[in-house]
Amino acid sequence: MHTNPKNLAIKDFVYELPDERIAKFPLPERDQSKLLCYKNRTIADHNFSDLPELLPVGSLLVFNNTKVVQARLIFHKPTGGAVEIFCLEPVKPHREVQLAMQQTGSCTWKCLVGNNKRWKEGTLKISFEDGEVTAEREAQQDGHFLIRFTWTPAELTFAEVLERCGRLPLPPYLNRELTPDDRTRYQTIYACNEGAVAAPTAGLHFTDQVMEQLQTKGIDSTFLTLHVGAGTFKPVKADTMEAHEMHAEQLMVSKQVVEQLLQHLGKPLIPVGTTSMRSLESLYWLGVLLLQQPDLRPEELHVTQWLPYETNSSPTATEALQNLLNYMERHQTQHLHASTQIIIAPGYTFKVCNGLVTNFHQPESTLLLLVAALIGEDWKQVYRHALDNNYRFLSYGDSSLLLP
Predict the structure, then answer these.
(1) Does the pTM of the predicted model rise above 0.85?
(2) Strand ranges of the sheet holding 335-340, from the earlier edge strand across to the other edge
(3) What angle do CA 136, 139, 144 make, to 5 degrees?
(4) For domain 5-67+185-403, which architecture applies?
(5) For residue range 70-129, what is the model confidence (pLDDT) as tens digits?
(6) Rounded to the nearest 10 degrees, how much is the dihedral formed by the CA atoms of 108, 110, 114, 118?
């Protein structure tokens, strides 16, 4: 096993993914996807609706309830040329996604601009039934633009503006136009906190029926929020991981959930999706940070990508989470807001999670590194089995339950 993920070569995390194995559309029924179960180093094929039967007794499933926003805005110049603006993250007046979505009148976001060369000067406009939104470039930095949006009626929130004139950002590898179906199917049934630009796709398989069966089986559920950023699709271009910069994502968790996690430690804690897993492990490292620096201000709560590998301190999960709870009590807050760039790769020691429900990920992706961190070299057998047995891959693809 590698001890230092910085030295990992991404070329060791490659497999052949033929284009026809990428699921371009969702199945008619969410829970009718296949489920590969990896348990005690053996692999078995199931249907996703079998999940409640396969989970260890007394498990707590942790879901990410972020909601994908219609972050793609297609503006047309007076001459008719299209310019696409893709909202990545808020800059002002609020950097916190929840607050930025409720902003009225105007706001500035960090964006990607497609066909920027066509946009020589001035502002761009989109009209919708009861108003309009304009876009103006404020600055350019590292391949991104800071775009100031202004709209009327000014009392609309930015979330409402996006709902009226934005489009859902499908993953680039689907390589197709949006269908009306995507509006519901590229959201989980429990999505509620607006702010993601990509879905936490492991959750797309859950139906009300599966949720009810989990309850019947005595499997508890809880929810936190990690707003998935476009960086989730960012391929690793560097030869070794040391030169790859992980994207930062915003994390929000309630005091009640931290208490629930604390009570559950010692029993199986299973995240639904890589975003939930990164969130749970980040909570541990936030607790560690606060043990070292108890006076951190709320806006300084950030897990850097290499923190887990560069920290000598390793308190128990109970100590770290209890410390987080104490911090929330000191600051008299019911919700913890933080950001994380954590990279989970072979060499990582899991502090909180005991398994994972996840889809099948792209070759050479940080998501595949996370799977390899959990199940070691067996990831190759799991992926080989999935390819040999007609599993569908990526966002709209099939699922797996990984229990090392």
Answers:
(1) yes
(2) 269-271, 60-64, 220-227, 249-254, 335-340, 302-303
(3) 100
(4) 3-Layer(aba) Sandwich (3.40)
(5) 999 999 887 778 899 999 989 999 988 889 999 999 999 999 998 888 888 889 999 988
(6) 50
